[in-house]
Each structure stands twice: as structure tokens, then as C-alpha cells.
Design brief:
single chain; 190 residues; alpha/beta; Rossmann fold; 5-stranded parallel sheet; 7 helices; 54% helix
Length: 190
Amino acid sequence: MIKETLKESISVKKKILDNEELIAKIEKATKMIEAALRADKKILFCGNGGSAADAQHLAAELSGRFNYDRDPLYAEALHVNTSYLTAVANDYSYDDIYSRLIKGIGHSGDVLVCLSTSGNSQNIIRAINQARKMQMLTIGFTGQTGGNMSELVDLLINIPSKETPRIQEAHITVGHAICEVVESRIFPRS
């Protein structure tokens, strides 16, 4: 079973590697994030469950460091303030947790990176709609179909799988590739 799981994970990543259109989208995401950071804009991440953990992980790679010591970059996961999250979920709706915060802290030119294996999470959809109203750029990380996010985001990175664990593993791999490239371009080693 362990070997089968590893084979499935490798298979999904091989499909990404062999898909030139998807590789081009990942490069485009890298350029969008790099350009925003060079313009002193924010990179905001959101997701639910495992995708929230992945969003927080990727935000930390940019705001802390990835491969080597360098200045921090402005990246944050929108769900890390549990007092805010639980208050808005209680007083308004769980569907509003991200859109409300984006309305408060987002600005034109910021980038919202949304992780959703299905692409159908209502709180993520509302976040995208709010970001678009504010002229933010949006990148969606999803599974194979892209779900409802596919028609809303500026750039869709849809992993060629329908299996949640394989999608999430690929989100981290692709996210790491983006962080590594962004770090090396903004802070080239001499």
C-alpha cells in the first residue's frame, strides 16, 4: 500500500511535468507573484482544512525564507487569526471569513492565492469575487476540473488528479517550485 501511494503521487507529478501548458501556467504564477512583491504588494493565501495548512506553509516559505537567508517578503495566510475567524464565522457566516478580511486589508495589485482541491468552496469563491472587485490578481490551485473557481480566477493551476491527497501533495510541490523561483529571482545569490 505504501509503494502504491508513492507511485500514485509520482504519477501525478509526472503528468504535471509532461504538461507544457500547465508548466507555462506555473511560470506565469511565478511572474505574477514576483511582480507583485517587487511592487510592494501582498501575497495572500487561503484554503480550508489541509489546503489551509498548505496555504499557511507556502505563506511562511515566502515571508520567512525558503532556501537561504534573505529579507522577508509580504505573504500571509488569511486564516491564522482564530479570534477573527471564529467571530466572523459566528456573527456573519463561515462563507464570509475570507472575503471580509480581503475587503479590510486587500489592495489593487495584491495577489490572492486560493487552494481548494474541489474548486467549489463557497468561502473561497466569495474571496475571489471580493478580490476581483478590488482589482487584486487571483491564482487558483485546484484539482483536475477546477470546479467553480475555474471561471473566476485570473490563473488556474489545476492538478491532473481527482484524488484529494494527490492534489494536495502536488499543490505543495508546485508551491515550493514557485517559492524557490521567486526567492532566487528577487534575491539572487552572488
